[in-house]
């Protein structure tokens, strides 16, 4: 019998809690996503996360340490060489990414772009590192005029294709991305994720839609989610989760529109009866505010999430475990528009806790995967130490 019959895992995408010791290697000295937002945003308060013990993890302006935190708390170090979503999530589920994913700081090789253009029957605009909203301002109008698609990358291993939904129908954009996926599975053009970036609107007021779709490579080894699936347990993926693991170890996938929908869908799974994992990624923090370097918007999104904590907690049963964490940082006041190399917070709640205890600085995100494996009695991951006995 597992100690907890259901584990609910929330990844607040990019909600880091201070620079990692190796942050200088990533040009991220001084980064502190939560800390800088807390300092800068007027009226900032996270009363419910504070009561769980968020302010006990690191000093945060306006989020004081709780005398008697309701949750166990700590922070986690990332051992993998990377600060992207894929690396962070794969590590959470027990993989150590020791070879960095290939990136394309100067754009993609001409041979790749030529072959891509030939296969899709459209030309490419851009082919450089860019912010996804800036590049629409720059090339969106030309795209609408010519029908050429916008290809761009970032500091991550991503091949992103942006197209207006009324110029390139969604089904075609998805087909185009399948072609990109196929070409970038070759070693010479290796890319971790191809991302469809549809948008709508007129020049000057383009908006990206929720029809984004990610095509990830498969994890290089079985994750704890595969182990759960193999053991006949549930492994429910909400939001981007199924994309991030390329459907590996996913027993049911639920798509979401935004953060609040992600919380709603997670609450929906709380009403179902199952044994296993329900895992959600809340991507708005990262995509809508972190990369956009918008501390105000980020702060509001955090407060909006905070307001849902009481509902999440009251929906938990006696045998449920709630884990709240993140996958990397994305400090909205840091230079550039990329992720930041940071610790991630760890909050663990279940009904039996009198006063939460300090789980320390965990040496890898994989401690979560190891704990889940330990709880359900499946094969533990190669890295990670279970903290189940401390709960
Ligand atoms: O600037 P946008 O298009 O939001 O892109 C961001 O989203 C990508 C995937 O998460 C990241 O690699 C970063 O480039
Ligand atoms: Mn992420
Ligand atoms: Mn991101």
TrEMBL record:
Keyword Transmembrane: no
Reactions accelerated catalytically: alpha-D-ribose 1-phosphate = D-ribose 5-phosphate; 2-deoxy-alpha-D-ribose 1-phosphate = 2-deoxy-D-ribose 5-phosphate
Function: Isomerase that catalyzes the conversion of deoxy-ribose 1-phosphate (dRib-1-P) and ribose 1-phosphate (Rib-1-P) to deoxy-ribose 5-phosphate (dRib-5-P) and ribose 5-phosphate (Rib-5-P), respectively.
Protein name as it appears in the record: Phosphopentomutase
Matches recorded under Pfam families: Metalloenzyme
Pathway(s) per entry: Carbohydrate degradation; 2-deoxy-D-ribose 1-phosphate degradation; D-glyceraldehyde 3-phosphate and acetaldehyde from 2-deoxy-alpha-D-ribose 1-phosphate: step 1/2
UniProt KW keywords: Cytoplasm, Isomerase, Manganese, Metal-binding
Residues at which Mn(2+) 1 binds: 13, 327-328
Domain of life: Bacteria
HAMAP family assigned to the protein according to its UniProt record, in alphabetical order: Phosphopentomut
Cofactor(s) recorded in Swiss-Prot or TrEMBL: Mn(2+)
A molecular function (GO) term: phosphopentomutase activity
């Amino acid at each position: 019998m597992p100690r907890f019959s259901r584990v609910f895992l929330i990844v607040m995408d990019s909600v880091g809690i201070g620079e990692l010791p190796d942050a200088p290697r990533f040009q991220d000295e001084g980064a502190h996503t939560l800390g800088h937002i807390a300092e800068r945003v007027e009226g900032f308060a996270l009363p419910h996360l504070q009561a769980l013990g968020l302010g006990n993890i690191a000093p945060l302006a306006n989020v004081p340490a709780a005398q008697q935190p309701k949750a166990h708390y700590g922070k986690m170090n990332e051992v993998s060489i990377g600060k992207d979503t894929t690396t962070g999530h794969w590590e959470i589920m027990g993989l150590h990414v020791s070879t960095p994913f290939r990136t394309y700081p100067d754009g993609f090789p001409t041979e790749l772009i030529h072959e891509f253009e030939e296969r899709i029957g459209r030309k490419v605009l851009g082919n450089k590192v860019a912010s996804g909203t800036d590049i629409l301002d720059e090339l969106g109008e030309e795209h609408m005029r010519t029908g050429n698609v916008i290809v761009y990358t970032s500091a991550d291993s991503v091949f992103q294709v942006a197209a207006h939904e009324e110029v390139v129908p969604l089904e075609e954009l998805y087909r185009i991305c399948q072609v990109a996926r196929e070409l970038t599975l070759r070693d010479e053009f290796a890319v971790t994720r191809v991302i469809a970036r549809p948008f709508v609107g007129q020049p000057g007021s383009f908006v990206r839609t929720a029809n984004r779709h990610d095509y990830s490579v498969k994890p290089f080894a079985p994750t704890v989610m595969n182990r759960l699936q193999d053991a006949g347990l549930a492994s429910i993926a909400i939001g981007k989760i199924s994309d991030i693991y390329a459907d590996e170890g996913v027993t049911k996938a639920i798509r979401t529109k935004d953060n609040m929908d992600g919380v709603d869908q997670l609450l929906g799974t709380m009403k179902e009866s199952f044994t296993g994992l329900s895992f959600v990624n809340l991507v708005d923090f990262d995509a809508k505010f972190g990369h956009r370097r918008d501390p105000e918007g980020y702060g509001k999104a955090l407060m909006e999430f905070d307001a849902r904590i009481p509902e999440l907690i009251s929906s938990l049963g006696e045998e449920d475990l709630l884990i709240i964490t993140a996958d990397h940082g994305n400090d909205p006041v840091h230079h550039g528009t990329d992720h930041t190399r940071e610790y991630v917070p760890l909050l663990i709640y279940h009904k039996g806790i009198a006063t939460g205890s300090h789980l320390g600085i965990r040496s890898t995100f994989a401690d979560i995967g190891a704990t889940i494996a330990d709880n359900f009695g499946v094969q533990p991951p190669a890295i990670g130490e279970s903290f189940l006995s401390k709960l």
